[in-house]
What we know:
By secondary structure, the chain is α+β, with helices and mostly antiparallel strands.
Amino acid sequence: MKKIFFLVFVISQSIAFSQSQKITLSKAIDIAKKKSPDYKRNVNTNQRNYWRYKNYKASFLPELRLNATLPDYSNSIRRITNDAGQDIFVNQNQLLVEGGLSLSQSVAYTGGVLSVNTNLERIELFGLDDNIRYSVIPFTIRYTQNSLLYNPFKWDKKIEPLAYEESKRDFIENMEQISVTTSRLYFRLLKAQKQLDIAKINLSNQDTLLKITKGRFKVGRIAENDVLQVELTLLNSKNSVTNNTIELKRTSQDLARYLELDTENLELDIPEALPLFEVKFEKALAEAEQNRKAVIEFRRRRLEAEREVAAQRNNRINIGLQANFGVSNNGDDINTLFDNFNQQQSVSLRLGIPIFDWGVSKSRRRIAKANLDLTNNDINQDRQEFEQEIYLHVLNWSNQRDFLLTAEKAKEIAKRRYDISRKRYKLGKITITDLNIALQEKDRAVFDYLNSLERFWLDYYTLRQLTLYDFINDRKITAVDNTYN
């Protein structure tokens, strides 16, 4: 029977081990950059921005369209004006079929649209002998411009390329943010695992100490208060194991769900410190200004505010132009439509000047100017915060390795002190209070080290995100760059 129980135990442990997955910080980041929800959202956003830019570029290419009405039937009484200038009501029972082609081209230099059009119409009037009529426009050249003083295409050519470049840099920054998020989830789980391990070890040690303490109490070497204190510590250790087990489950689910893993049973390695490298503020700031989207964003926001000012300034005098030149013909025989053509020409220049509008135009101009001033002030403030953020992070990074080395040394000292205190307690040379103090300092030192290690890696990936520069390999970070670990 014992052999059977032992065999079942071995099999269950083997199954549990086979279901667990070993993972390092670098591997977790690689997975997150391919499968995480943030990666998918980043890709979708980047695709949307790409097609928006393609749409902008395509708007300056010729467009060929087919326009048709197949068919348009109506049977109704309508009011028309006859040759004598009188309004009469007539019964219209007709079928209209028409179709045409148009080739249009935006003129970026002027801000208008040039188009070439052709059209053919056929009207059949029911109830009449001569009931079919045709109309043809072989070609007509048309130019339309809404405003001679404001060219929206000129501003689009300045702003849209900046917006697209900003979106590309935003994609890279978001990829680096995935590294930061993954590191944070990774260390939460790592700390939960270590806390549970420590809690289990402490529970085992407290159980042993309780047996020793009860033995000393029986021979009268210690007071009952010491026994009660050890029992209380043992109960707290049991509660700690329970709480840390729940925390381990939660953090493992968070990381597994973020990485879209098939198992929540993860074995994490403690990342080692990176090779020592120095980061100078001038270098970090120069790379950030060249690589970050914020610098492009500053220029785009200012141009958008200037565009609004220009639009409102030119709205004081609205001058529009429309010109048309072409030929046409109509008749009841389609075979003779293309024999002789009638010229059709038109030029119209529209002028609109507000004489008195209760200050509407003036207020719109003032609003646009105020928005421009506000945007400039916001950009100046954001630029200062941009530089300050990089400066403080570079300063913090230069001290982070010292913090990590100090925390690691404190952890080793606290562990040695606890081991010595536990041996001395077993020999009866210190009280249970002294032992508990050593235990608390040991646990706190371990957590401080893990927290310091977490800050070290988070600062490293944040430094990459703030500058989009790999200081270890001395190169810019691109969209296909692999994360170093």
